[in-house]
């Protein structure tokens, strides 16, 4: 409910700042943190429990139980996803099992499930008074419940998860008019929905097979457009829907997800008190010429792609008497770049292609020290666009395409302009030595949790 309240405040603030009325808007799009799970009463609109966010690990035992016979890849051929605490389906099951009356209410058809896009659309279109219950293919593809080939909920998986189909939203395309808003956006067509990382891919104009972007936020998310056929990963990556325009064929992507990147800088600030503001990390990191031989592997909630080890935990290795605050700050930044290289190498192996450059966006791309090291460790140019908030831009693009504000993706592609490019200036031997030692450090995190 706090998210719904804050959303209304932001809408009103944006309209006020732009001196606009809802009638001035051609359309509105929504982008959202994808796997975060809400279950609410369809009559009152009140959630049965707090939202469960994507990094929450309370479903670890359930995922282990579901994969006991057939392993972590039990549903991968149909969903493109491993069994993991990351995804929404097990979170729904947890709420049904652990919240009083949830299971019986769900069996009676009295509760609804949604990721944040679904929850907001439902409220924006009337809530208990006729709210529309939908999600798009990109968000549905992150639930562990949708079949990538049919683009519909998979009945066999629903049965295994014990999730009633009646509580699930209708799956739509990413760009169509879902309905007209009421309240703060009264009369505005709600016409676009994309999960945040797919929205960034769209906002970066990655409409051709082989184009990729990396978003640096709380976590880090590398997506590669693979075209109209879902590409199975042999390297621990996720197969996901990139976007679908109206009735056109869906476009798919390979995705690599890193749980802790910007969140590691927040950890240095909030837990250790090394910095006062997140932006201070760059100055602290620049106080030393390098990381002093230390590596910081932030497996705080396990390791995601390409390892998928929920029993890993974070480590700092290579500490000496000479290690200081600056070395910790630099190692924290470098961890983001190393993890991105792991994802990129896995993608190149799966897609059998070589990436010539990397488009980047998100809050951390303002950190020029990180961006230079990212280019160095990858050995390719790193390109920051003029508009770095590509997630919001992608949602606007989806809504504008549905209502004719933009004609086609070529028009969107022409909107993209580069702001700065970092070129690699590290020799290959040094790059490979640093990366080899990073991978040695990663192995120290494995199997720390024994039960």
Describe this structure in words.
This protein has helices at residues 2-17, 60-66, 76-79, 88-98, 102-107, 116-124, 137-140, 155-161, 196-203, 262-270, 280-285, 325-351, 368-378, 390-403, 409-415, 428-443, and strands at 28-32, 38-41, 111-114, 134-136, 146-147, 152-153, 170-172, 175-180, 189-195, 212-216, 220-227, 238-243, 251-258, 295-297, 315-317, 358-361, 382-385, 418-422. It is built from 16 helices and 18 strands. Helix 9 (196-203) packs across helix 14, helix 10 packs antiparallel against helix 12 and helix 12 crosses helix 13. The mean pLDDT is 95. The protein is globular. It has 451 residues and is α/β, with parallel strands linked by helices. The strands form six sheets. A seven-stranded mixed sheet has the order 12-13-11-10-16-17-18.
Query: Pairing-aware structural class of the strands and helices?
Result: alpha/beta
Which band does the percent of strand residues land in?
Answer: 15-25%
Widest sheet: strand order? Answer: 12-13-11-10-16-17-18
Helical stretch tally: 16
Work out the helicity level.
25-40%
Could you report the average pLDDT, rounded to the nearest whole number? 95
Total beta strands: 18
Give the overall form. globular
Termini distance?
35 Å
Task: Write down the Rg.
Answer: 22 Å
Residue windows where pLDDT falls under 50 for at least 5 positions: none
Largest sheet: 7 strands, mixed
Explain briefly what this protein structure is.
This protein is an alpha/beta fold and 451 residues long. It contains 16 helices and 18 strands.
Summarize the helices and strands and which ones pair or pack.
Elements lengths: L1 H16 L10 E5 L5 E4 L18 H7 L9 H4 L8 H11 L3 H6 L3 E4 L1 H9 L9 E3 H4 L5 E2 L4 E2 L1 H7 L8 E3 L2 E6 L8 E7 H8 L8 E5 L3 E8 L10 E6 L7 E8 L3 H9 L9 H6 L9 E3 L17 E3 L7 H27 L6 E4 L6 H11 L3 E4 L4 H14 L5 H7 L2 E5 L5 H16 L8
